[in-house]
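Hey, I was hoping to borrow your eyes for a little while. No rush at all, and the record is pasted right below.
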Amino acid sequence: MGYLIKSAEDVGILVRRRTMINQLGSPKAIVKMFNNLCKYIDVEKKNRYSSLFMKLNAYNAVPHHSWIAILSTNIFHLFGEGLLPLLQLSYLCLP
């Protein structure tokens, strides 16, 4: 379970995205609780998600993949918001 939530920032992201509701108050308390859920369960090192983690880490190791992700979430989004209304307005103004 330690793979999923490692820090208070992770909890903040999940709360902002409405994936999780924080009713404990402190994000650190959630991290502690979440990481202690499987404390006494013997989990193999190779679990169901290990191949997925390896593929995801290999994909993220390629620099241009992270650049594309950053551009698509930040820059292209802002560009689309500004450009699309102008194109719509110019289309309406054309005879």
User: Anything to note?
Assistant: The chain has a mean pLDDT of 76. The helical segments are 8-16, 27-36, 50-61, 63-93. The chain has four helices and no strands.
